[in-house]
Amino acid sequence: MSEAQPSQITGQVKNAQGLLYQAVGAIPGTADSWTTQGAELAKEGQDEVHAAQEAQKSEAQAERVEGKVQSAWGALTGNQETLNEGNLKAEKAEWKGAVADGEIPVPSMDRVKGKVESAVGMATGDVDKQREGNVRAEAAEWTKG
Questions:
Q1: Exposed (0-12), middle (13-18) or buried (19+): which is 142, by Cβ within 10 Å?
Q2: Coiled coil: which residue ranges (predicted)?
Q3: Of 27, 48, 66, 111, which has the fewest Cβ atoms less than 10 A away?
């Protein structure tokens, strides 16, 4: 039987349980084992949350690369549907990775302009405009500090 994957939810539950045990252990006359066991549970929960976040970030990064490759392939072959699907997959993965860090991705103004240009190209069927927008957005991403 395989070991369960780390989960942010079960990690948070273990952490809360550990904190509760520690609170009980702080009551005069209770056994020290409550405090000790609580500290262990809280640490175990925090470690599980961290492991789940790292797994989610790694998965998101792999999905983002896959989306970018798919988008590039669509641009090279002139397949608009593949390009769009790749862009969407890469965007979803970027958000997934940011959420794992507890953040919201904040793109640069040049990247936003490129994405808007790409969206306009997609909406109007202007593949060249969409491609130029994608290139502008990618260039802004690669040059950010």
A1: exposed
A2: none
A3: 27
Q: CA Rg, the chain, in Å?
A: 23
Six token digits for residue 120: 């306009």
Asked which of 29-33, 99-103, 136-140 is least confident by mean pLDDT, the reply is 136-140
The contacts of residue 76 (CB under 8 Å, 6+ apart) are none
In the block, residue with structure tokens 């809360």: 16
Q: For residues 102 and 8, what is the distance between their CA atoms, to the nearest angstrom?
A: 12
pLDDT in tens, 65-91: 998 899 888 878 888 788 888 888 988
| Residue 92, both tokens | 């979803």
Cα–Cα–Cα angle for 107, 112, 117, nearest 5°?
155
Distances (CA, A) of 18 to 15, 41, 78: 5, 5, 56
Hey, what amino acid is at 55? Answer: A
